[in-house]
Amino acid sequence: MMELVTGGSGSGKSAYAEMSLCSISRPGSGGRAAEDTKENTEEKKTEQKPPLYYIATMPSWDKETEKKIERHRVMRSGKGFLTLEWYTDLEDRLKSGDCPPMEGAGVLVECLSNLTANEMYMESGAGEGTAEAVVRGIMELKRRCAHLVVVTNDVFAESASDTPEMRQYKENLGKINQVLAGEADRVTEVVRGIPCTVKKPAGVETLCTEEQGETEIRMQTERKDRRHVKIITGGAYQGKLAYARRLYPGMTWTDGKSCRLDEIGICSAVYAFHEFVKRWLEAGRSSAELTDLLLEETKELIIVCDEIGCGLVPVDAFEREYREETGRIMTALAERAERVDRVVCGIGTRIR
């Protein structure tokens, strides 16, 4: 079984991918490795669980990447993953004599966007043959292991003009995504931490497979009590505010781009929330403080926010932080939201 997981920056796709693989490879584990109690130790003597491999593709370039790598290590700690730091040449590594046994294993590849960049720009990479090399490596993994989850990134939705180099990168990643989506049994887009099925396995009539449903249920049970937060999300200029006004008539709307920072604690409906987050961070305040403030409120709050996590990673350090923190804030809010709607071309769809 192969699943391709996509989403923007800070969308929650990595957390979903880990839970999805654990729920399929080790059903009933809840995504966590069992503690070594006396009973479990006796059970392990007779029952050998299949290995879980985490193929990490992000090299440690600087403090920023080290911070990201550490965050992912913390996320997967206790889940039983064995980490393989493979930055290029997946096919050759799998065929080498020192490759660990993959038969019956569950494998998570995190992620294609880094792997593609590595193959294009690292000295050991495939260069002009990047797309073909990445696809061959993933398909070799699919042939060898029992369950494969591959994480990719949506870097294709942005208004900024691309350099020729960036166009080539996007073309390679787009080609890889399309080929692997065709080969995958399931394709899932994660929006604000919510898994949305793009392609379902053959023979499955519902949009949510049994395993995916279990993953979503597990993610829900880990949430605390729901708050009276309602979210409308989507790309820029998609008609989100008009949809929100129709869905929630009679509300007084606060403009997140120009309101005072302290208004967020007293308003009942805010649009351009992504602009508010930017101003909040520029003022030196933390995303955790904002998230806690909004979740502590007991009154109803309606939030309209652009999806800004798609597109290539910004060059500016603050812009990178702003994009990721906005995604994480919205994912945290969506986890405990009463309702989440996504608007595309003026058409709203309730995704939670």
From TrEMBL:
The keyword Nucleotide-binding applies. Keywords: ATP-binding, Cobalamin biosynthesis, GTP-binding, Kinase, Nucleotide-binding, Nucleotidyltransferase, Transferase. Its EC number is 2.7.1.156, 2.7.7.62. Pathway: Cofactor biosynthesis; adenosylcobalamin biosynthesis; adenosylcobalamin from cob(II)yrinate a,c-diamide: step 5/7; Cofactor biosynthesis; adenosylcobalamin biosynthesis; adenosylcobalamin from cob(II)yrinate a,c-diamide: step 6/7. It is an enzyme of class 2 (transferase). GO terms for biological process: cobalamin biosynthetic process. Pfam families: CobU. Signal peptide: none annotated. GO terms for molecular function: adenosylcobinamide kinase activity; ATP binding; cobinamide phosphate guanylyltransferase activity; GTP binding. Transmembrane segments: none annotated. It catalyses: adenosylcob(III)inamide + ATP = adenosylcob(III)inamide phosphate + ADP + H(+); adenosylcob(III)inamide + GTP = adenosylcob(III)inamide phosphate + GDP + H(+); adenosylcob(III)inamide phosphate + GTP + H(+) = adenosylcob(III)inamide-GDP + diphosphate. Residues 33-48 have a biased composition (Basic and acidic residues). Residues 24-48 are annotated as: Disordered. InterPro entries: CobU/CobP (IPR003203), P-loop_NTPase (IPR027417). Catalyzes ATP-dependent phosphorylation of adenosylcobinamide and addition of GMP to adenosylcobinamide phosphate. Belongs to the CobU/CobP family. This is Adenosylcobinamide kinase. The lineage of its organism: Bacteria, Bacillati, Bacillota, Clostridia, Lachnospirales.
